[in-house]
Each structure stands twice: as structure tokens, then as C-alpha cells.
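Could someone model manganese (II) ion with this protein?
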Amino acid sequence: MSDPKHDSANKAGLRPNGRPRILVVNDDGATAPGIRALADAMADLGEVIVVAPDKPQSGMGHAITINAPLFVEELASFGPGIPVYAVSGTPVDCVKLARDVILDRPADLVVSGINHGSNSAINVLYSGTMSAAMEGALEGIPAIGFSLLDYSMAADFRGAQQAATHLAQQALAHGLPKGTLLNVNIPKGAPESIRGMRWCRQADAQWVEEFDARTDPRGRKYYWLTGRFQNYDEGHDADETALKQGFVSIVPVRYDFTDYPALEGLRQTWRLPDAATPS
Ligand code: MN
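Reply:
Sure, complex below.
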């Protein structure tokens, strides 16, 4: 008997029903409106499986759960043929469990989101949305994270859905370079107000004035992470600029953090101790 999970005949493009398999994940949790909007958009393109945290996990980045058990619970489906699984862990746990436990065959595409709030510029580092997509890319699967610049639970996701449909189609048709995933951010508002899409680089920005200090009823000081996003980058090709001008920003991201130009320069200028000689 062949093991369906390891049967190469079932790999991408050879689905028995000819439809690609799309894994939908997020960090805002299985009940967030954004993931339902993304699953609905993907349903036209293939077979959709939703695997998401059972509670909000924003800002968890690439965290994994190693000191606690993980529970997987099947929830009510989002619609005919769209199963939904809730995981008691992080966004990255969801992608790992999907691969190893929930799916009998690998996904052809991993899409994450639609996040409630921006993941432009350096936010990619903290984002559970983007880390879930990154985990898909680590598994060799084309992966895209989608984020809408609107925190409201009643946000208009239609523009983001249109962008997701278009880019998922492109990813299924063309794939992505190995090790690369896409960070897609969508301006807030009705779809008619979106001016188009633009390839971008990550803007130079940071968070400042991060902590709000207060005093608890027992006189102890405590701190609440808050802060203000400060953009230093007005470049035409920066994602912040595109979003400000009403465009969807698309930034190709790599999980290989190696700074290759710096590696060369450092090799030539820094002196490292000579290799130990055997005595
Ligand atoms: Mn989130």
C-alpha cells in the first residue's frame, strides 16, 4: 500500500481532481473575519483547508510551542468543502501540524491572513501572519501573506480578496523562487479606491516611544507596549509609499537572513583567530 503523504504521484499539478490544494492560515485566529474572507476568495481557485490558531496570536512571529501539548479541533466548516481546524498554538505550529497531521498530501500554496492590520516595512519581523507564510516557504511551498491596513473587525475585505485571488492565481501559475515568499499589504477602504499593485522593497521604518508606563493599585510600576510607527523612507519603491498612494504593496521576502555583501566585506577586514592546530 502506498502512503498518500509520501506518494510523489500526488504532488503539485497531479491532483486526482485537477484542483490545487490551498492551505489557509493566519495569526488572528480561526474566528477572525479576515481568514474567512481569504478562504472564500481561495475557494474559486482550488481545494481549501483552513488551519488557524484557536485564539489571537498576533505578534508571535516565528514562535513555536515546545513545552505544552497541542490540540487540534475541527470547527464548523466555512462552506461546502472548506474544513476548518483550530490549533491551540502559534501560527507556525498550525503550518507544521497541517503538514504532519492534518493534510494527507502537501499543499500547493500557503496563504496567510487576511491580517487585521498592516505588516508593512519591519513589521514583517514580528508578524505571525508572515511567519506562518514563511513556514510554508521553508517547506518548499509557494507562500503569500496578506494584510489589510484596517484593524476593524467590520473592515471591508473586498479589495484584499481581489488582490489575494489575483496573486494566488499568479503564484499557482508561475511559482516563486525557492526561499522567497511575498508580503502583500492592502490599503484600507473600498476596492474602487485601490489604484493598483506595485512591486516594492521593505521601507526603512521603526517603532518609537514604545512603552506606556503606569502604576498598578499596589503602587508597582508596569509597562504596556504601545508606540508609534515612524517611517523614514519616502522612496517610490518603498512599501510605505505605495500604500500611502493607494497601491497594494508586494514585497518579496527571503528567510535566509544572511547579509552576503557584508559577509564578503567582513571576511576581508575583520581578523578571526587562527584555526587551532592539533597538538
Ligand atoms: Mn494579526
